[in-house]
Structure formats: structure tokens, C-alpha cells
């Protein structure tokens, strides 16, 4: 095997199934000698999205593997105990539904798959609820579709709900809303969905648990000499030639995991790909142990997120701020409240990107707005305590929350 370039390092697979990430110490030492970080970014991550794939969760296609679920839940509860926040993205609905319906194989027609997903989702969530209940942790089912993470107004709603659940100590369990999606708009694989959730909640890191030890330099199912990539810059072009399609049970294979890692990196999230079959994998991976594949973002999370927000091209309106509001935004990094707004221009919807200008018309910031233009006009110059009286409902107290605001 060609030893890695500075950008990525591999470790030789030792047996028919999977090698260990430490098998080839030379590679690891080479990285250390070159000063490559020893996963401190991963060990320091506090907000995690953990995605569990069908290939891992399902018992060779015969429904859900309750033992795997039980062990995962033990590990996720321990991760929470360590003070981390966790959102779980779990596949498995279709596989569970097929068994519950007594079918012998996976159907191909979309409506059959959707029916199986609807049946299996109950089984899936019930299994998690029972297992998390052992730790007194409540679970919440979140089914997301394309629009929920792409359309700006729904984006804010999904973000608000997920972060509230985290604050409440609940374990959100996310899956694609398979029942209503059409072929054109479905994610299909949950890797993409997990990455979008990582963007949505500003996760520090994404852990993709699957049936392989990580990303190999060729599909280990077909190439027994394949070697594990231990770490690599997520954008390295060499990776594209390595990632292959999924197995019978999973959907996207490593192709979608690599794409997901690149999506997650847009908001600064690190990605780890690891085998959910290895003992204690969640604890080991999340504490920075050298397991699986680490796809590094190489960016400061805050900068990455701001770049991502700033890159949204459609800016259908703007708000003019008084001098006090401009100062607070610039100097204290605070949210924009309606009281600091003196005028509203354009026609925007909740969740749109709007420009924030000073009295001279210079753009000082831009961000995702919590109210539409008509509501913003009614709220301008008013204290947040008056929002409920003015609009007839109690919305967010900020016009633009600081997390959704980029200073220019
Ligand atoms: N380069 C690669 N390294 C590791 N696995 C790969 C690679 N290319 C393709 N694969 C396949 O990807 C599969 C995992 O993806 P997938 O089946 O979609 O699982 P999941 O349901 O966990 O998302 C592995 O079982 C493996 O056969
Ligand atoms: N939403 C589907 C998951 C699709 C799927 O298998 O995704 P993946 O595990 O990423 O290959 C389900 O719950 O069955």
C-alpha cells in the first residue's frame, strides 16, 4: 500500500471483515510527526448528531436488531452523561415494516416502501423509547422532509424544535418522512439527512455508524485488501475514487457518507465514520480515540457557519437600524430586536435572509428573519414584550437571532 500523503493516512485491514484503525502504527506516527492534530476537535465536540444506518440496525434484513439498539442506547445515554447533547438520526423503518407486515423481501414500488416505512417507524421508535426509558430519557420522533430543511421558514421551525428538545433533555430521533416523499424530493439515504440536521443545529460533529469500520480505499466487500482511511481532509479529491455504493440493506453506501461529511463541513461539523458493531464505539469515537475514519473540516465552526449563511444569495428585503442597534450588533454580538429597527423594506417571508443597514444605507449584517415583512413593519421600534399584543401570538423575541446573523 502506498503510504499516505500528508492529507490522508490509511491502516491495513487485517482480517476478512475489518481491521483496526491502529493496525498500522507507522501511518499514525507519520501523521504525528507531521503535526496532524490528534482528534482534539473531535474530543472537544459537545453537540453531536449520531446517525445509525439500516445496514447496522437490521438483522440481515429480518427486522430490527434489538441487541444493537439496546447497546447503542446504553452508549448514547453515557454520551449524554458526559455532558454532550445528542440528536439521533436512525434508519430502519422500512426494514422493520417489512417484517411487521410479514413480507419476505424488500418491495420496489414506492407506495409499498412508504407503507412499510409507516408501519416500521412505530416499531422503531417504540424500541428506542423502551430502551431510553431505562435511563429515564424521554424520546421524541421527528420526521423530516426536504422542505423542512430547505425552506427557510420551516428550517427555523425545525431548528427551534430540535434545540428546545435538547434543552429539555429529550433525545430527538430523526428519520426521513418516508410516507409523503416522492422520488424527486426524497433524500433516500439518511446520511444526507443527518448532515442537514448537523447544519440545522450547528452540531460540532457528526458520527455515522455503519456496518464497516470506516471508509476504506476500496469497497471491502469486494476487495479484501482494502485499507482503512484513518483521517483525511474532507474535501480531498482522492476520496471520491474510494467511496462506493451501499449494500443490500443500506441505501447510499460510502458515496453518500462522503457527500454528507462535505455537507456537514459547511457549518463546521467534523465527521467520523465508524462501525457500530465494535464494542463501546460511541464512547471511543466521541472521546477522540483513533477509531474509524475522521473526515476533517479544517475550518473554525463559527467561520464555516457564517460563510454558509452569508453565501445565501437571495436577499429579498432589508431592515434599517438605529445607531444603538448597529452598535449592539457590532460590539456585543447580540441578536437584533424589533426595538432597534426604524424601517423595513421589501417583501420577505419568515426565514428569508434580510440585509441589516445603518442610517446611511450601509449593510452591516445579514441574517434569517423570524417574522415576515408585514409583521416586521408592525413590530419596528416596539419592545419585544409587546409582540404578543401586536401580532396576536407570542413569537420569537428577536427579529433575527444572533446564531442566524452574520456581521459584514
Ligand atoms: N470505500 C468503502 N469503504 C467502506 N465501505 C464501502 C466503501 N464503498 C462502498 N462501501 C459499502 O458501503 C456500505 C455501507 O453503506 P450502507 O450500506 O449505505 O450502510 P448504512 O445503512 O449504514 O448507511 C458497506 O457495507 C460497504 O459495502
Ligand atoms: N428512511 C429509511 C432509511 C433509508 C436508509 O436505509 O438509509 P441508510 O441507512 O442511510 O442507508 C428507513 O428508515 O428505512
Automatic annotation (TrEMBL):
Q: Where does the record place it?
A: Cytoplasm
Task: State its role.
Answer: Catalyzes the transfer of a phosphate group to glutamate to form L-glutamate 5-phosphate.
What are the BP-aspect GO terms?
A: L-proline biosynthetic process
Annotated residues that bind substrate are located at 91, 178, 190
Stated EC number for the protein is 2.7.2.11
List, as start-end ranges, the regions of compositional bias called Low complexity. 17-28
Q: Which GO terms describe its cellular component?
A: cytosol
The UniProt record gives the binding positions of ATP as 51, 210-211
Name-wise, this protein is Glutamate 5-kinase
Polar residues: bias regions: 1-13
> Where is the chain membrane-spanning?
none
Q: Which reaction does it catalyse?
A: L-glutamate + ATP = L-glutamyl 5-phosphate + ADP
Per the record, which residues fall in region Disordered? 1-39
Q: Which GO terms describe its molecular function?
A: ATP binding; glutamate 5-kinase activity; RNA binding
Q: Which SUPFAM superfamilies does the protein's record reference?
A: Carbamate kinase-like, PUA domain-like
A Pfam match is PUA
Subcellular location, principal: cytoplasm
PUA domain location is 317-400
Does this UniProt record's set of keywords contain Kinase? yes
Q: Which UniProt keywords apply?
A: Amino-acid biosynthesis, ATP-binding, Cytoplasm, Kinase, Nucleotide-binding, Proline biosynthesis, Transferase
Q: Which family does it belong to?
A: Belongs to the glutamate 5-kinase family.
The UniProt regions of compositional bias labelled Basic and acidic residues, in chain numbering, are: 29-39
Q: In which pathway does it act?
A: Amino-acid biosynthesis; L-proline biosynthesis; L-glutamate 5-semialdehyde from L-glutamate: step 1/2
